[in-house]
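pasting for ref
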Amino acid sequence: MTGPLYRLGGLVARHALAFFAGWVVFTVAIVLIANATGRPTSDDTNIPGSDSTRATDLLERDLPKEANGTVPIVLSSEQGKLTEGSNRQAVEQTVKSLKANQYVRDLISPLSQQGSDALAEGDTVGIVSLYLTVGPGEITDDEADEIFAATDPARAAGLEVSAGGYLGTQLSEPSTRLSEIVGIVGAMIVLVFALGTVAAMTMPITTALLGVFSGLALVGALGAAITVPSIAPTLAIMLGLAVGVDYSLFIVTRYRRLLADGHPTAEAVARAIATSGGAVVFAGGTVILALLCLYFGGIPQVRQLGYSAAIAVAVVIVAALTLLPAGLTLLGERINALRIRHADDEGEGKGGRSSAWTSWAEAVGRHPAPAALAGIVALAVIAIPVFQIDLGAQDNGQMPTDTTIRESYDDLSRGFGVGYNGPLLVAVDLKPPAKPDAKKEQQLQQQQAEQQEQSQEAIESTTEQLEAEGVPPAQAQQEATEQVQAQEPSQAQQQQLQQEEQFYSSPASDPRLVKLTNQISKASDVDSVTPVTVNQSGSAAAFTVIGDSAPSAKRTRDLVNHLRDEVIPAATKGTGLTAYVGGTTAANIDLADKIGEVLPMVILIIVVLSFVLLTVAFRTMVVPALAAALNLLAVAAAYGVLVAIFQEGWGVELIGLDHAIPIVSFVPLMMFAILFGLSTDYTVFLLTRVAEEFERHGDHREAIIGGLGRALRVIAAAALIMVLVFSSFVISGNPTVKQFGVGLAVAVAVDAVVVCLVLPALMLLVGRACWWLPGPIERRLPRLGIEGEEYFKDS
């Protein structure tokens, strides 16, 4: 790899202005292309083989109107009822406007007979239930905006309007702009102090920014052809900024060292790309491979997050290998301009090491056992909460209060109960097809006939009595009719009888369906069950179950499992019905369950991959094994902090939340892939420096202490930059982004401690045996120099 990278670095150095200008033009072009496509995103919660996916598939085939469930448009009035005066007129106009929208297939008005139960709080809160033509995995920002714009009549009349469901989610993604600014400023400050000059700071920041803009735009443009989850751009920004600055820092540090050794600018650039660039390719390639390993989880949404993030990282790597050397060439020795303090590259001062970092390295060398024990015990203690981890879904009740999804969440909870924010959609496959309950229908008709006969007999009897009292026959019959009619059921009762008649004449009255809905309505934690909708052929049916608890609550998950495992099997046994519990809430539960199943397998794949790569790179099986074990412990510690803060609520108020929330199911899985890849960066950087020191004097102990002393400053600066970038996203209003920010920041900090303390201490304790490699493997293993110093030995 060294030769090709050296030639690439030389090519860029010779044509620096063209490469730099080319990157600027490419970035502008790809951003324009991405903006033209609208950067579509989609949150596909499809889990092959899951109950929720079967429900969706069944309804898409046989009841397409019900496939996506309903989306609530919540109307709230602070003055007067929605059913009276100008408020009523505004609701009617809004319903008319929504009906005319091209993306609304059908709707239920709270003012209609069918929507009579969609009014609450003294008729001051109402729900317009929308059936949309676009599903949760398809809707775009433009489509969501157009649908919500159709509610303008209600807003113009002074009503509060909010959107729930997947429409509200699409409309409510909080901006990460402030997080990005804070992260960039923090990285700039660390770079200035780490490199010692303002000029040296400019190129890592420029490379990271152009790389992130380009990568983000590329992911956005590809969203027109591939599925990109809505959180993928934010994750791409976080990763791109962090690795972009870190990788650039490694190369800039080597470049300045080569300049100090007397190499001309072009040669220093070429050698920096050939050496540190090799480490960037190796480490970045490991991150990409770890992200692509998410493919083996078999979960579409996780796969999509994996390849979206991998694309962003790949673009940043290319920027570090082409844009950065072009900028370094253009700067030349001016990279040392605007110096704020003296800082020798890689911390090298007298004797090749700076005293501050050498003191740490020598302290580890003098006391390796206490250092290793203290580090391991501390990580183990921090990791303890991980045993309580409980995967769930995002809690929209913790979104910023100015988002429409949060407004709808609060209004629905106040008016109808918190369970209305996470309805469960039950899809039923009927074999044989549903038929009206003929027996009940016949009984009802017979009852109505008897009532009519009794009424007629009563009229005749009363007429005879009145005639006997001397009332004229015509008048007697009229008075008798009025008396009997006055004793008959009221208009409301008659309307109810008509509804019963309509119900029993429809396939929804099939006794099997009635039994199923009755049993579900009696289940604990069920608030209500909506009427059943049956397709024309009677082969499929659907209805909605409203629970008593929030969508993200453990009680809701228990309810879904209870319905699937006990209530539905008992109610459908021997009936020919097959019922599935679906909808967004159930899909999120299925996603969490699936991730819980595949997480160990994905972890094993990534650990084995990391072990193999480090074994090939450094020709030892002991150090990669130690690194893998310590990385697992570091990730467990990061998980522990995540559980303690978010799930258990320890100090959750400090990060802008008011109560504990579940760990979003895909966060730990994505974290592991990202962090195991990133941790390889620091391990490679340390081991490369150790190998260089060993080449100098051949002493194992001194090589580790010397390599650690040289690597510490750069590793500490790189880790601090990542921690600042990731931590800045805690400012985001999105609870899931907060979890990524906290989890990744803690994990990077912990990993830096592992690489700078525990790993070198264990290597000192193991001694030369840490370089052990079985003979047969050693003879067959290719020699791979990460930074390729041997390539320049004769130069």
